[in-house]
Write the structure tokens for this entry.
Amino acid sequence: MSLRKLLIFIFFIFINSFLWSQVSNFYNSNIWYFGKYAGINFNTGNPVAIYGGQTNTVEGVATICDPNGNLLFYTEGTKIWNRFHQLMPNGSGLLGHFSATQSSIIVPDLSLNNKFYVFTVDAVENHLQNGLRYSIVDMNLDNGMGDVVVLQKNILLHTPVCEKVTAILDNQETGYWILTHEWNTNAFFAYHLTVNCLDTVPVISNSGSIHSGGAYPNYSWLDGWLNGEGYLRPNRSGSKLAVLRYRAPLELFDFNRSTGEVSNPISCPVALEQSSVCEFSPDQSKLYVSTISSALGTTNYIYQFDLSQANPLGNVQVLVHLTDGNEPSGIQIAPDGKVYVSEFNASSNVQYLS
């Protein structure tokens, strides 16, 4: 299967999408900044490479635009840049990590006061010790370019958690559930953000496998921590969650948008070794998973699961096997309704968005 490839300057990327919701129609992610100074603009309908971005990262990023698709700010979990690609005055020192698979996500304050929550998580390289935190960006500060509120920065919600954070619109469409997964347990934590406040007492669901372990024998500091990597990905309607750990089976869950509970785990009978990134198709009928690791042996597959089947994870199909040396990593639905994959060819040092 051939893929149309757009040459841009990126490394491995994991783009943390903004939210599929009616509330998020106030804002969008029509502009992406990611990877090694890469950028894509979807405002014209087709992706156009843009420049000036300040990210130099191999994993999670988040961007936010106004209703007209104009950039507001972006982050890779440790720094926040404004629309002019300048570091916000108080925008450094966030306790996320540039090497977390889902390093950050940006969620609007639902009181529509021009403020935003930036949720961050730590990485296995730091043994996940900084946990899930949030900071408030007030776009009224710094002459309308935005800044992090001094006394509302790096506020701890829970530690340790995996490299996972996402947000799902609640059933009333007046709030969001901010989800993460605790390390060394099988507990999901869901925090309810409403127009009134962020409820810092989470809904805890013990469901599925314990997130622990993950061998990395060539690097003792990471050995036993590698399964902290991997996506926590909702489908478009917020009814399903796909959960990956780097060296463990894929799991699929139901999510209750009314209560914040996670339930009914289904585990893939085939272990997709070295997998950390997944994405649902726009119509929610398929799930895609990429597998790659230069350090542990290159696999270079993109797998597809047909979620319309009675046993949705029981029949894994190879959608793409990249035999040209390209390594697939990030998978992301874009504003144009297509699913994009980042690729990197280590031998030629060429990077693609496909």
